[in-house]
Amino acid sequence: QVSFAPLGDAGQQQLERGRALICGCGALGSVIANTLVRGGVGFVRIVDRDFLELNNLQRQVLYDEADVAAGLPKAIAAAGKLRAINSQVDIEPVVADVTFANIEQLASDVDVIVDGTDNFEIRMLLNEFSVKQSVPWVYGGVIGGEGQTMTILPGETACFTCLMPELPAPGSTLTCDTAGVLGSVVGVIGSLQAVEALKILSGNIGTTSGELLVIDVWQNRVRRIALSPLVEAGGCPTCHQGQFPWLEGTRGGESLVLCGRNAVQIAAAGNGKTDLALLADKLAPLGEVTQNVHLLRFAVEEFRLTIFADGR
């Protein structure tokens, strides 16, 4: 990697001092984390709210069947794999949902944010934090055989709100439940996101893409969409008018449907902490209970309930 002239020794040394936040470590996130850690980024914080299931393995390349059997949250399983890949990188796993209440704690000390999520609400939140705090971030999304990515440099490029002023109406867009996901497009988009992050962290920010890149691996189509007209048009409520409703917590729900999971997440109330051992004792007479330090699973008849230590 050092022999690649645009990077060289100087760029590699900057990577070693670089700090990255990866939000979501499922399909895209596992490709991104794998690439950044193998590339020698000095500090990588991984935030993910979910645990592993068998059908994840089709596209989530960091994990295997043993990780599913262990019942670990994705962030914890990913950290174990990544430390074995490169012991010189500082890996910090966080089992949590990214919300307006914790985004500053998670993102205030990093040089780049990389999107591995699967929902627009978190992307709106990341975008507002990015613009307000001038932290670059790299958006990515996949569905079916198509994916897209763009790099947001606050004050220089269009932001995500320029591209999408409002969330899509419910039912108006395809989801992984309706369209599925090809593992190959995950690899393509995640790799493109990772190289954009490597450019930023190595001091080569001028080589990042200022366009929206859309790739359909099944139809062999690549589209590059210029975003400069959005910047020139002005009027964006985020990067032009300084409005941050997602960051302030005035927008965003307390529950959401998890894509591809036949499940709903309910956000924690109160202090966001749960005594899992005490809860296990209460639930044990009522059904099947399994537990580790990160989460508790409760099964009765056809219903499955997973409770995380942060109260979700």
Describe this structure in words.
With about 300 residues, the protein is α/β, with parallel strands linked by helices. Helix content is about 35%, strand content about 25%. The chain is built from twelve helices and 13 strands. It has helices spanning about 10-15, 25-40, 65-70, 75-85, 105, 120-135, 160-165, 175-180, 185-200, 230-235, 245-250, 275-285, and strands at about 20-25, 45-50, 90-95, 110-115, 135-145, 145-150, 210-215, 220-225, 255-260, 265, 290, 295-300, 305-310. The radius of gyration is 20 Å and the shape is globular. The model has no long low-confidence stretch (mean pLDDT about 90).
List the SSEs and their pairings.
Elements: H1 8-17, E1 19-23, H2 27-38, E2 43-48, H3 65-70, H4 74-85, E3 90-95, H5 103-107, E4 112-115, H6 120-133, E5 137-143, E6 146-152, H7 160-163, H8 176-179, H9 183-201, E7 211-216, E8 221-226, H10 228-233, H11 245-248, E9 255-258, E10 263-266, H12 276-283, E11 288-291, E12 295-300, E13 303-308
Parallel strand pairs: 1-2, 1-4, 2-3, 4-5
Antiparallel strand pairs: 5-6, 6-7, 7-8, 9-10, 11-12, 12-13
Helix pairs in contact: 2-9
Which features would summarize this protein structure in a list?
about 300 residues; alpha/beta; eight-stranded mixed beta sheet; 12 helices; globular
